[in-house]
Fold these 2 entries.
Entry 1:
Amino acid sequence: MAGYFELLWSFFKIGSFTLGGGFAMIPLMEKELVQRKQWLSKEEFLDLLSVSQAMPGVFAVNMATSIGYRLRGKRGAVMAVLGNILMPILTILLLAMFIRYFRDNAVVESIFKGIRPCVVALIAAPVFTMAKNAGLTWQNCWIPLLAAALIWLLGVSPVLIIIIAGIGGFLYGRIKDRKEASA
Amino acid sequence: MIFWKLFYTFCKIGIFNFGGGYAMIALIQNEVVEKQAWMTAQEFTDIVAVSQMTPGPIGINVATYAGYTAVINAGYDPWLGVAGAFLASFSVILLPFILMLLLSHYLLKHKENKDLKNIFSTLRITVLGLIAAAALLLATPANFGSLSESPLQFYLSLAIFAIVFLLSLKKKVSPILLILLSGVVGFLVYGI
C-alpha cells in the first residue's frame, strides 16, 4: 500500500526529472509506479492514461490525480498532484525572478531576439505533427482552418470555439446515427 | 482586482483545455495577451521559451510564469508576483482536478460511449486551429523585427523560423536544443 509521503515523493521525482512536457512523463511514471513500486497493473495504468487524456486540463496533472485517487483516495490525489508540480513551479519562479532582474541586460536581450522566432516555429510545428493522430482529413480540415481564421482575424475567443466544436461533434454524431438507422 | 481575474481566467483555461500542452499555450496566449493585455506578445514568447526548457508539464510552467508576470506588470510588489504565480498554477488545475475525482469512475465505465467519442474527435481536430492561431498571433514585428526598421533581424528571424520549423517537423530535434542554438545565434549576431 502506498503511503501519502511515498506517493508525494514518487510524483516529486517524476515531476522534477521530465523535460519536454507532460507526455515525456509517461515512461517515467510507468517505470516508477508500475514496475518499481507495483502500485498499479499495466492495464490499470493504461486505463487511467486514456481517462486523463480525455479530461480537460493538464495531462500530467490529470495522471497524478487519477493515480493518487486510485491508490489513496482524495488525499492521495492531492499528494500526487502537489508532488508533481512543486519542483516545476519553484524552478520556473526562480528563473522568472532571475530573468526579471537581468531584463535590461543587452546580452540577455540579444539571446531572446534569436529565441523568439524559434519559439513561434515550435508552436507552429505541432499543428502538423499532431494532425495525423488527431484524424485530420481533407473532409474535415475546414474545421481547424475556420477556427484559426476566426481567432486570428476576428478575435473570436478560443473557449467559445471549443464549446461550439463540442456541441457540433455531439450533434453530428447523433444525426449520422439517425441517418444510418433510417437507411 | 487582478488576483480575482487571475483566478477566474486560469480556471477557465484549465477546464477548456482539451489538447495537451500546446493547446494550453494557445488558450493562455489568447487570454493574457489578446484579451486581458497583461503582457505583450514578446513577453509571452519569452515565457514559453523558458517554460520549454525547465522540468514539468509545459501548461503548468507557462501558467506559473504568466501569473507572476501579470501581477508584476500590474505594478504590484515582486512578492505578490510569487502569490500570482501560485494562484495561476493552482487555478489552472483546480476544476480538472475536481472533475477528475467526480467523473473518472464514470468515464472508465463508459469509455465506448459514442457521444463522448464524437465530441472528443471533433475537439482534437479543432484544437489544431487554436494552436495555428496562437502561432500566427505571435508572429509579430516585436518577435521577428520589421522589414523597414530592422531588415537584418527580420530576415534572420525568418531563417530561424524556417529552419526550426523544418527540423522539428522532419527530424524531431528536441525543442530544448533548438532554443539553445537559436539563443547562441542571437548572441553571436546581436550581442557582440
Entry 2:
Amino acid sequence: MNLTIYQLYFWLGADLKFVKDLVFSAAVKKEIGFNPSIRLGTEYSMVDFFKLRIGTSNEPNTYSGGIGIIYQFVQVDYAFFSHPDLGLTHQFGLIIRFTKN
Amino acid sequence: MKLFFLLTIFFSFVPILYAQVDTTTLQNNLYDILEDATTDKEGVEYYDLVEYLVQNKIAVNTASIAELMKIPNIDRQSAIAIVRQRNLLGGIKNENDLRSAEGVSEELIDRIISYLIFGDVKDVSFFDSINKNFKAIDFTLRSRGIYDLQQDKAFSDGKYYGSSWKIYNRFVVSKDKNIRVGVLIEKDPGEKSFNDFTTFHFYARDIGFIKNFVAGDFLFEFGHGLTLWSRYSISKGIETVGILPRNGKGIIPYLSSDENMSLRGAAVQFSFNNFNFYTFYSVRNLDGSIDKSTNQITSIRLDGLHRDSSEVAHQRIVNEKLLGISADYSFGEIGSVGLLYYNSTFENDFQHNSLLDPSGNSFDYFAGSYSFTFGKLYFSGETAYNKISLATINSAEIAVDKNFSLLFSYRNYPYDYWSLHSNGFGEKDGTQNESGFYSGFKWRTSYGNIYFYYDQFKYPIGDEKLPLAIKGNEFLIYYSVKPFRDTEFRLRYTNQLKESVAAINGEYGVLSRRKDNLRTELLYKLSKFIQMRSRIELVKTYATAISSEEKGLLLFQDVKYAPTASLSFSGRIVFFQTDSYDSRVYEFENDLTGVMSNPALYGDGMRWYLVARYNTSFGLSLSMKYSELIKPNEKTMGSGDTLINRNVDNRLSFQLDFKF
C-alpha cells in the first residue's frame, strides 16, 4: 500500500542583522510536488515599539508588507499579502508574552 | 555584526524531533574526508583502515617520518615539522606541545589528533608480547544486520537464493600492536550462505628484522598506486593539496568486506635501519566470466554478489597467482626511493576485444617511486612499466608557509597500460587511458580558508564504439569560515565540463556535458549536547549537442544529540527535487560504525533517518539505524530486479560491538 502525504514541507532560513534596527531574512521552502520557493524579507525598527516589514517571494510570485506594534507584553501585527488567487489579502496577529520581566 | 539563525522544519501534523549523534572524533573526521567521494561506492575499506589506525595509535615521540605519513591526509612537510618539534623539545608531552610546532596548522592537528599518542610511550617488542602478560589480550566482536523492509521484485519473484538480510560478523584477537588474528564473514542480500564471503589473517610485527608479517588476506600499497594499491582511494575534493602525493603504506593486513580486493597468501617486510625489503605471494580465485569456446577470460567482476544462478556461475572461477618483491630506502627528512616488481599470472588468457583489453595471461610490472624535499619544495612520483608502455605521475608541492601551499601534478596512463591492482590518481578508475594536469592550492587566512583545484584530463581513446580522444576539465572552489565559536559556514562550488561518446540521432558522436554544483552549509552547536548542520545544494547539468538542461535541489537538516557520554542520537531530514537521474544529488549519511552510505537522490521526494548508539560500561556498544526514502507522487520505486511496488523504501539496521 502506498503512503499518501497531503502536505509536507521543509523550510530553511536565516536572519541577518547587518546594523542595529535592520534585519534581513532569507528562506527557502520546499514542498514535495512543487518547485522550491525563495522568500526574502526586511524588518526595520523605526522606534522601539514600531516595526516596518516588507517581503517578496517566488513560486508563486507574491509581495507583502506590514507593521508591528509592541507595547509592554502585547504585540499586534498587521500585514497585507498579494495572494495569487484571492488578490490582496489582510492578516492580523496578536502576541502576548508571558515572561518573568 | 550579529547573525541570527532561524531554522524551522514544519510538518503538517507532527513535528519530528529527531536528533542526534555520534560525536566520536573518528566519525566526524571521516564524514568530511569521505563525503568527497561523490559516488555511490561505499568506502568500507577506507573506513576500516582509519578505524584500525585510531585503535592502534602512532607514538608521536618514536615514530619515523614514514610511520607518521601513514596517517590519512597528513603531508610530508607537516610530518617533518612534527619530528623537528620533538627534537627541539626533547619529546612531545601533550597536545599543546604539538600545537606549538612551527609549520603544522591547527586544522591539520584537529584532523590527525585521533591517530596519535603522546608522552613516553615505548612499543612492546613481539617477544615481550608473547612471553608476558597473557591477560592483556583484546577480543573484539562486531555483528551487524541490515534488512530492507520493502522487498525488491527479485525477492518477491523468488529469483534469489537467500534472504534480503545483509549479515556481517567480525572477530579480532590482538595483543599489544604486535599480534593480530582476524576473521570476517559476510552475506550480501540475496546470498544463501552466511559465510558467502570469508576473510582472515594472522599478523605479527617487530620480530627481529621482520617488521611486518601477514599470512592470509592482505593489501600491498606502493608509491602512488600505479601498480599495486587498494581499490578504494579518496577522489578529488576539498583536500586540494593533501590528496597528492600519496603515501604507499606497504603491507596492510586485510579485514574488510570488499570481496575482490585483497591478496591472499603471505607477505613479509624486513627492515634494516632505513632500508626495507618486502616480498609477497598470493593465490586467489576471482569472480569473472570465461568464454567456454575459447576458454578465455572475458571479464572480471568486482561486485562480490552471488545471489542467483547466473552470479553463482561466475563465482571464483578466475585464478590468479601473484608474486612480487619491493624495496625502499629512506634518506630521513630529505626523502625516499622505492622499487617494485611483481608478476601476475592467470590460469586463462584474456580475450582481447578492444584496444583497452589486456591480452595473454602473464603480466609483469616494474615500478619506481621517489619523494624528495628541498626546502619548501617537495617532489614525488611513480613511474611504472608493464613491458608495453610507461605510466607515470609526478607532483610538486610548494609549501610557501604553513598557511599557503600549492600543488602541481602531471599524470599519463597510456591506453595499453592495464593493471588489475592499480588505483592511480585520476578522473576515472583504472589507471589506464588518461592523461591530465592537476593544480591546486589551499590558503588559510584570518577571514577563512580557501581551497581550489583545476584539473584538465584527456582520454586518448574515448570509447570502443568511437575511438576518438575526448577531454574535459573540472574546478572546485571551497571556502569555510568560523564567524563565531562553534559556528562554521561553508561554500563549495564545482564545475565540470566533460565529453563523452553517445548516440545522437542514431549515430555515435561526442557529447559535451557541463555540470555545476553549488553547496552552502552551516554547522553550529545549539548547546553542549546538540549539534546542527543545515545544507542547501543546487545542481545544474547541460548537454550541448542535444540542448538538454536539467536542475536539481537538495535541502537537509541534521541534528545530533548526545545527552550523556554513553548515549547519542543522530538524525536527518532531506528534501530533494531533480529533473532526472542525470541531475542527481548525493547525500553522505551518518551510519553505523564501519558503514558508509552516500545515496544518490533523484526525482521529487524526501528521506529521513535516525541513528541511535548506546555504549555500556562493560565494553558492549549497541547501535541502530532506521531510514526511509519517500516519493509521494510515485507509485513504484526502482526498476528491474530492484523494483518496489510502493512509494516508500525503508531499511532497518543494527549492530553490536563487544570488546573484552
